[in-house]
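QUALITY CONTROL LOG
STEP: pairwise intake check
CHECKER ROLE: data steward
CRITERIA: each record must contain a sequence immediately followed by its structure tokens, with no blank fields

ENTRY 1 OF 2
RESULT FIELD BELOW
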Amino acid sequence: MKLEGTTKRIMELLTECNTVKEISSRLHLHPKNVDKYIRVLRDLGLVTTKKGKYGGVYLTEEGKYLVERGHVSLLTRKIRIVAEDRRGLLADISSKISEIGGNILSTTLEREKDHVIIWLEIENIDVEELKRVLGPYIKSLVVV
């Protein structure tokens, strides 16, 4: 998945040490909104902060790696999948999600006769790519 939108612009600015005020000014965003992104990026271990006169926010080695590769998503998506029930289905779906760089945060499975409804909370995925790779395994996929 490509770095997109505001996340991409903020992370690109953080290749050099910047303050929230500098970032918000350059991107024409409110500092509170920039601070929300910074907190999420910090929680993910992608940025660190330095206090003091020459302080600011900058990328960690992991953050630099992701900017170079262009892959990161701060969004999680809740997905509802309907598929024909069979042995190994969940393993196949999990494997395909992993192959495209997704990470499953939670899952719930419900049986209805010969079908299953799988609820997944996934981060770092592109929904269209997910539909493409899971197409052979499922009947429907809906983002909730």
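ENTRY 2 OF 2
RESULT FIELD BELOW
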Amino acid sequence: MSAAGFLDVIGGRFQIVEEVSSWQEAVRLAGAMLVRDGVVEPRYVDKMIEVTKELGPYAVIAPGVAMPHARPSDGALGLGAALLLVRRSVNFGSHNDPVYVVIAFATPDKEAHLQFLQELASLLAKADELVKQLAVCDSERELADSIRDFIRLGSVE
């Protein structure tokens, strides 16, 4: 995935918090950015939490990184993602805990859903390096620049 492509999907939806009380709060914070920008209906955020409770910590797809999401039919209105950095981490009950980076996303249909996941897989191939790089960011702008640099410098094709 290109830096421009991933950053376009995020669309400036970055947030840094020191800590959260639970993984549910982390998902709600990331999801709130999607709701705010009209990417999803509020029920989509509830469904992300419900699905994680039902299926276990499936959303923690790499060390330090969770990607909560639900089906397009659960209230997705478009393609979008939001990145939440939790400085003190949060546990989802996964072998990939602790989680520092929460990327909530929504896609309007199954095809876009699969394509986004496939493209994001290349970004997360070196998730440990990405998490270390993002963890030192002090602003949303630094998060975007760090992702752009991470991709451009060849960590991701």
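INTAKE CHECK: passed for both entries
DESCRIPTIVE NOTE, ENTRY 2: The chain has a mean pLDDT of 89.
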